[in-house]
């Protein structure tokens, strides 16, 4: 599929930016029209009464369409979400309570099974507007996906203002921290983008980078990475993805088991499925030169969960690159894993200065039944 195909029939923006003359009556306009109709008949207003419905529609027509504002997309989507899901799935702001590895170990329930998932490879800022934005960008905020398992936020990127990520024109990729569990593609998956940048002209204040809501709903198997560009008011975002059908969830853990990881050695951990040579996913990139290794030797990955198609393979690569007095050191190794339905697989990457054990925990996908049982 050509880049951008997602933005057509497969990608649906709830903001309606492509409709007509880029104007619409918002949720606030509808509420205002409803109030006007009620003011005319405050004591006997009933929306299921024909005359009152006509009064409501007349008031709605009188409400002038307003210019579409990107800032309104999230509030309008939140209003719709509250109407559809709040009674069953909690608050709009809730993070998914279902973690990874739900069906890694026995007993495995009979309803657990592989299904179609959506693999996210990367998200990057490809263009910025000329109205005050300049590289580098100090970005914070969130990008979250909501699938039909629980309709709650499954964060792909989530940073507070005091932990923002610096994007440059040469390195515009968001460091993804999720998904925290595989994205199940049975019903449409909604994506919520709320990104801001620190203002360069007014310290302590933020500027809008992107506020968008869109959805993906095509469930099929892809053997290649697909991408689309999401046009926002102040930037363009590129999403790279692939639907995998059928597939299972794989959770990666990396641990130093022999030797040590020197503070002057940068580290990069990536993975990809064997079927997609260009589908590399970054699990960790220690750009500041220090690898985040805890007291047990576990390397704290930014992202841990990916999807693997049935009868597929997962390759996990670890790279070390020296800095300072270790400059010139480059070592890399790859561990190969064959897909399993449950349980764990182990492999070792030998970098010379240390050995790293890679563990993959396999699991069937989370379902609505899991959500109901965990409530």
TrEMBL record:
Basic residues bias spans: 27-44
InterPro entries from the UniProt entry: DUF6598
Spans annotated as Disordered: 1-52
Ranges of residues in domain DUF6598: 117-360
Top-rank taxon: Eukaryota
Protein known as: DUF6598 domain-containing protein
